[in-house]
Structures are given as C-alpha cells and as structure tokens.
C-alpha cells in the first residue's frame, strides 16, 4: 500500500467533514420532501423483518470491495505470528468499550442531562442510554478499511482484526447488550446480527478475494494493479457519502423532532471515541506494535458498526425511539471525528516510532 501523504489526508479532513454535514442536510431534506420515495427505499430489506436495507448494503459493498481487491490474502497467516496488536484491539473492543460507553451514558445522559439539569425526561434518557450501548457493543467493520487506508495501515492485519471481531460479535454482541441494557425480556434478534455480518462483511470480502484471484490469474498483476484498481479510486468515498444520505433520509423525522437531544447524545459519543482510540494507541505503543498496525487498531477500538447498531435499535425499540436516535447520532458524529483521529495518528507517526520499534510478535 502506498504511503498516505499529508496533503491527501488534509483534503479528506478539510472537505469530507463538510460533505458529511451536507449529506445530513440532503438526507433530511429528501426524507421530508420525498417521504414516499424514502419509505419505499427503506422498505427494501434482505428478508422479512431483517432491518438490513438493500440500498445501503449495495453502497457498503461499493465502499469495501475496492479495498478488498488490494489485499493479498496469502499473507494473513503471518498475522497470527504477531498477536500483540490483535490482543490490544480485542481487549479494548470487548472488555472496555461497551462498559465505558454504558458508564458515560449513565453519567451524562441519565445523571447530568436528565436527573440534574432536567433537559430530557427519565424515560427518554433510558432509551438514549440503551442506544449508546448498542452502538458501542458493535465494533466497526466496513469503515475500518477506510481509516486503515488513510493511516497507511497494514491491510492484511486490519482484515484479520476485523474478521476476528466479527467472529466474536456473533456470540458476544447479544449477551453484552442484554446485560448492559438491563431490560427484562429484551432479546437481541440473532437473525439481524447474522444477516448483517453476511451482507456487510462476507459478501464484499468474498467478492474481492475472488476478483483478485481470477483477474491476476487471467490478466496478470501489472494489469490488475495499474488498470483495474484505478477504476475504483473515487468509488469508496462516493459510496460513503451516499450511504450517509440514505441513513439520514430514513431517520429525517426523528432527527428534526429531537434535534436538541442529538446535541446532548453526541457528548458521550465524542468522549468515548477519543478515550478508546487514545487508550488503544498508547497500549499499542507500550507493547511495541508497529505504527501501521497500531493506527487501524486504535481506530477499530473507537468506531462502531453503525449499520448493525441502527438495525438492532430499530428492531428492539422501534424506528422513532430514543435508542434508534442515539445510533443515528453515532453515524453523524463518526466520520468527522474519526478523520480527526486519523490525523492524530499520522501526525504522531514520528513520535510513535521513537520507542515503539517494530516487534516480531
């Protein structure tokens, strides 16, 4: 993978955050001005009551597929011989992140904003906190490859981190959510979880591997790298922005009706992102993990699988619930905040390398 230049990252940071805001405006406008079209698009799902939207899934495929094409799956075996980065990622994702978000949600939403300041009702505070927990309990998958690209991460190692997280998510996501939400009788729908992982990870990953293998075998690696990959350069960013437009369009009414709550909910999310990314990054440095593994690992520890979180929150609490709104705020906050984390990782590369020399394990 080529080195990410400061100029390219400045371009993303300077303009993509504005594009995210534009996506919210355009999405909300579409949801309000064209409710019929929006409702039709929202109803296209993979299976009855799966809550996994087909248009969003297609855009996620377009987001991930170009990055999957660049990964040489033959080098994945070597990742197992360097377990330190994986261990840090897993500890932050599963032993710290959901529980820290539950604490932040309780402290800010329920204690400060509701009980102390009276800005939101106790019932709404409970729903918002549940949504925050659902958001934090689902580690990021698709977007991690974008963040890895922007920080010049080790693509094979990033894939391994995501793959192992997905396997753990199949068995750990539901129990963690049920335990932390603490709502009697709440059952996280396993069908939604399984369908989301298959649609958002297995399909684009398999398509990338198959395309790379067949095209290199038939056309040669120079043609594949120099010609075929070049076609997809703008695809990832366009697919990302289109995904955001659709998500905001589907939740337009919820955002407009509860705009003040959006601001309040963003507070614990922002703290959680910077806390977990900073913790993972510093732990990686302490364990002498190479920077191209540490940066994606820190970003995995901070970002969320918002597609799954939105689907689960809607399934459990309804499309207009406070829990669903909290997951939508996560979508709104994620891109600009994660871009700032990317910049910190890139700007601190030299500092990181002074003592965090490449380790063999």
Describe the fold and architecture.
It contains 16 helices and no strands. By secondary structure, it is an all-alpha fold. α3 (54-69) runs parallel beside α6 (142-150) and α6 (142-150) crosses α7 (155-181). The longest helix is centred in the first third of the chain and has 33 residues, at 84-116. The protein starts with 5 loop residues before the first helix and ends in an 8-residue tail after the last helix. Mean pLDDT is 80; it is low at 1-10.
Task: Summarize the structure in short.
The chain is built from 16 helices and no strands. The chain has helices at residues 6-33, 35-43, 54-69, 84-116, 122-136, 142-150, 155-181, 190-219, 221-228, 235-250, 252-257, 259-286, 291-300, 306-317, 322-347, 349-353. The longest helix has 33 residues, at 84-116.
Question: What is the strand and helix layout of this fold?
Answer:
Layout: H1 6-33, H2 35-43, H3 54-69, H4 84-116, H5 122-136, H6 142-150, H7 155-181, H8 190-219, H9 221-228, H10 235-250, H11 252-257, H12 259-286, H13 291-300, H14 306-317, H15 322-347, H16 349-353
Helix pairs in contact: 1-2, 1-10, 1-15, 3-6, 3-8, 3-10, 4-5, 4-7, 4-12, 4-13, 5-14, 5-15, 6-7, 6-13, 7-8, 7-13, 8-9, 8-14, 12-13, 12-15, 14-15
Give the helix/strand class: mainly alpha
Order of helices and strands: HHHHHHHHHHHHHHHH
**What is the arithmetic mean of pLDDT?**
80
Q: C-alpha Rg, in Å?
A: 20 Å
């Amino acid at each position: 993978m080529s080195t990410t230049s400061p100029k390219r990252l400045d371009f993303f940071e300077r303009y993509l955050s504005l594009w995210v805001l534009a996506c919210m405006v355009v999405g909300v406008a579409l949801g309000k001005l064209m409710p019929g079209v929006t409702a039709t698009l929202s109803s296209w799902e993979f299976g009855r009551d799966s809550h996994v939207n087909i248009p969003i899934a297609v855009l996620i495929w377009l987001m991930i597929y170009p990055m999957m094409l660049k990964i040489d799956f033959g080098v994945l075996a070597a990742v197992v011989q360097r377990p330190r980065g994986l261990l840090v990622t897993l500890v932050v994702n599963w032993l710290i992140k959901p529980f820290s978000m539950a604490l932040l949600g309780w402290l800010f939403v329920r204690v400060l904003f509701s009980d102390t300041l009276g800005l939101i009702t106790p019932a709404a505070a409970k729903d918002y906190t549940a949504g925050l927990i659902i958001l934090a309990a689902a580690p990021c998958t698709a977007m991690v490859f974008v963040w890895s690209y922007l920080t010049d991460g080790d693509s094979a190692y990033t894939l391994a981190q995501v793959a192992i997280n997905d396997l753990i998510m199949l068995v750990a996501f539901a129990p963690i959510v049920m335990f932390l939400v603490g709502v009697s009788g709440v059952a996280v729908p396993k069908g939604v979880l399984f369908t989301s992982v298959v649609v958002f990870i297995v399909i684009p990953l398999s398509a990338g591997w198959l395309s790379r293998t067949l095209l290199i075998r038939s056309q040669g690696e120079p043609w594949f790298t120099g010609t075929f990959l070049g076609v997809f350069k703008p695809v990832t960013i366009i697919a990302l922005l289109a995904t955001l437009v659709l998500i905001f369009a589907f939740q337009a009414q919820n955002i407009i009706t509860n705009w003040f709550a959006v601001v309040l909910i963003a507070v614990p999310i922002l703290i959680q992102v910077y806390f977990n990314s900073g913790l993972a990054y510093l732990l990686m440095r302490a364990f002498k993990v190479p920077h191209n593994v540490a940066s994606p690992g820190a970003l995995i520890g901070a970002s969320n699988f918002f597609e799954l979180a939105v689907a689960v929150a809607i399934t459990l609490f309804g499309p207009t619930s406070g829990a669903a709104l909290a997951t939508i705020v996560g979508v709104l906050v994620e891109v600009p905040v994660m871009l700032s984390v990317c910049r910190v990782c890139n700007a601190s590369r030299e500092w990181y390398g002074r003592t965090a020399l490449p380790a063999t394990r």
